[in-house]
Amino acid sequence: MTKIVVRPITDADIPGAATALVEVHATDGYPVEGVEKPEAWVRPTGIMGAWVAEREGKIVGHVAVMQPHDEGAVSLWREKSGEAVERIGVLARLFVVREARQYGTGERLMRAAMGYAQESSLRLVLDVMTKDAAAIRLYERLGWQHIGEVTHHFGAGQQIPAVCYVWPAD
Ligand SMILES: CC(C)(COP(=O)(O)OP(=O)(O)OC[C@H]1O[C@@H](n2cnc3c(N)ncnc32)[C@H](O)[C@@H]1OP(=O)(O)O)[C@@H](O)C(=O)NCCC(=O)NCCS
Q1: What span, in angstroms and rounded, lies between the C-alpha atoms of 43 and 39?
Q2: What is the pLDDT of residue 1?
Q3: Mean pLDDT by 10 residues, the chain (170 residues)
Q4: Among 21, 23, 30, 107, which is best to mutate for testing ligand 1, by the most ligand atoms less than 8 A from CB?
Q5: Which of 103, 125, 152, 166 should be mutated for ligand 1, with most atoms under 8 A from CB?
Q6: Helix and strand counts by DSSP (H, E) for the chain
Q7: What are the structural domains of the chain?
Q8: Which of 39, 102, 128, 157 could form a disulfide with 18 if both were Cys (CB 3.0 to 4.6 A apart)?
């Protein structure tokens, strides 16, 4: 197994991250919205930090911390905790292509994002579709705390159940 490097994203990584995203959508149906514009999806507005996993020049994984909008896990956590929105970041856009899974790549991407949150004194929240069981196991293994359920609306009136998590929990 060749070494996988996890590092902050650069502009040069965007095409590779977009290709990896298209691959993950084909294998896992993530994201549920589809990947009509994959480069825009990996470079949305409101990114605070983003990291990629790279193996032999190929981007095989990605994760981001994004500015919060008052919806989903952000609203749920604010209702529960009263925490100021400025102190919250949203863990988002985590994916690893199939061929690079089960080697701890997802965990290393998560630890990069969590390290950034710690340095920035940010609380992280996320929502994950209930169907994405591997991701849920990863979050729980890393100490994320379940805070509730929401319904994710997308497309032309479609909806799917999601669960919300926070880290650190205290
Ligand atoms: C969720 C996801 C990112 C995990 O990526 P990953 O690189 O496989 O993650 P890890 O390797 O850290 O952990 C996955 C499993 O491999 C195991 N593992 C890690 N290193 C291992 C090793 N060296 N040998 C054997 N198993 C290992 C972990 O224990 C874990 O096991 P589990 O699933 O039974 O709990 C990936 O499955 C994915 O992209 N899914 C589709 C997209 C998605 O759902 N994203 C979430 C959006 S909210």
Answers
A1: 6
A2: 65
A3: 93 98 97 96 95 98 96 95 96 98 98 98 97 98 97 93 94
A4: 107
A5: 103
A6: 5, 7
A7: 5-167 (3.40.630.30)
A8: 39
